[in-house]
Amino acid sequence: MCEITFDDLGPSKVLHLYSKKIQLKAMIVVDNTALGPAIGGVRVSPVVSLEELLRLARTMTLKNSIAGLPHGGGKAGILADPKSPEKEHYFRVFAKMIKELHEYIPGPDMGSDEEAMAWIYDETGRACGLPEEIGGLPLDKLGATGFGLAECAEVACPYAGIDLKGARVAVQGFGSVGKAAARFLSEKGAIIVAASDTQGTIYSKEGLDVNHLIGTKLSKGAVRYCKEGTCMEVDDLFSIECDILIPAAIPDVIHEKNADAIKAKLILQGANIPATRASEEILMRRGILSVPDFIANAGGVIMAAMEYAKKTEKEAFDAISSKIKKNTKLILEKATKEKILPRIAAEGLAKEKVLKAMRSREY
Ligand code: NAD
Predict the structure, then answer these.
(1) How does pLDDT run across 202-241, given as a tens digit for each residue?
(2) Which end of the chain is more exposed for a tag (fewer CB within 10 A), N or C?
(3) Which residues have C-beta atoms less than 6 Å from ligand 1?
(4) Of 63, 75, 87, 323, catalytic
(5) DSSP secondary-structure letter at 254?
């Protein structure tokens, strides 16, 4: 059992839920609500751990704070198979169990989607990332996070000495985030040289046709069926010659053992917590710039919060662009000036806001 470490921000609530009737286990971490009710995704996986949820909930506190959203951070995990035919049933049972937990607003995450949010909303009247038919801004369909990553790239490239036009990009994980990032980056003139998923990596020095790559992933289920390029092993993606690397899959994929092999000049963290702290330090020593998750991938939660505040799609995209560009510049300026990790620069600014809000509330 993971030991919970409490610090000056939280967590404020950790719940273990169990439905004996359907043998459903779930966990919720509400990290901090000083800025408002916590928004955070519902991760569905048979192996999601409390430790992972604690770290992801903290990431959401920092992400929502620095993005200037009126929300705290939280995260939920349902221990189940995301492809189970019983999915609607267990989501509805989960939703009933959290109905009175007003300080937590569920959103989509790995293993959950707009349809799952609609079931939760139907049971509780509270969820974001809803389907369009019930007033939602479908953030994965619109590619909110990938759009934000491309906006982040525009600002970060000069700090890494790269011209975005013609920059070679490798994307690890070709799901909602990876596909949209590839699409928006190629629209800005970048060249997608590699992409991976759980079945393998596809690589082409000359660049892959993004529409064909996305089409292949959608129709055949894996990037390795792409007609162009060379197939490689899953983890080969990290040592590919490229300018920009985007981890967009699972936590801790960049670590002390592979940080030295990375050839990119810039890493944009599309996934949450994709790099260990130790690896970020190695990358910094090697002169590789890494924009932390809670700055680079904030597009999804910004759109979710805009939906919750009943804003339009255009207002949401404008907010993603302006907030991510402003924050990327802010933290990279600070990190360069003070010679610190961009993550440390960003954490300092995000924490300051939360602590200030905590002082003015009864805690
Ligand atoms: P997704 O389930 O749509 O896609 C994940 C992809 O990663 C899949 O293609 C899967 O095959 C691949 N993958 C899994 N393990 C892999 C591995 N070891 N190597 C290579 N590929 C692997 O998920 P998503 O919504 O795209 O989210 C991806 C990450 O981004 C997660 O960490 C999530 O928390 C984070 N994130 C998502 C959003 C969002 O808007 N969806 C917002 C912020 C952060």
Answers:
(1) 999 999 999 999 999 999 999 999 999 999 999 999 999 9
(2) N
(3) 109-110, 139-140, 144-145, 172-178, 196-198, 234, 248-250, 270-272, 297, 300
(4) 75
(5) B
